[in-house]
Write the structure tokens for this entry.
Amino acid sequence: MAKELLPDSVLTNWQKKSADRQKLYKQYLQRAKKNDVLKQLPDLHEEAFSKIDCLQCAACCKNYSPRFKTPDIKRISKLLRMKEGEFVETYLREDEDGDFVLQQLPCPFLGADHYCSIYEDRPSDCHRFPYTDEDIIIKRQPLTLKNATFCPITYYVLEGLLKNK
């Protein structure tokens, strides 16, 4: 049996729909069988990325900061030909969890065209975002719910999971 794709109309007014469905998403994620969800994620993730162009949105880069782990700081400061301490002082601050995050938003590496000037060397969090092809979607439910409010791909994947339950 062929897999039925979500209709394109699912993305119409997706932000309002996502806000309205937060409780439903939370209930689903709390009750979902992890292995069933993980089996569906690769196809839903690929389908979402085939329908949604991140370069048209960039809400993640405009409104939220990734965590910059030590390997990220080393790699990016080397790319920018800066000392690690200088990179941290120029771009980062420590948040309430003790993680290094951007001092300001939007991301200083985001261009007006929504392209990332450090894309090949971007932080691991950026590379993995929106985590719709990994178990983070279940393991870190508050993060998934937050991401669904501003990331159409997260919203799309959650809608697909609900449709297939």
About this structure: Residues 13 and 152 are 10 Å apart (CA to CA). The longest strand covers residues 92-94.
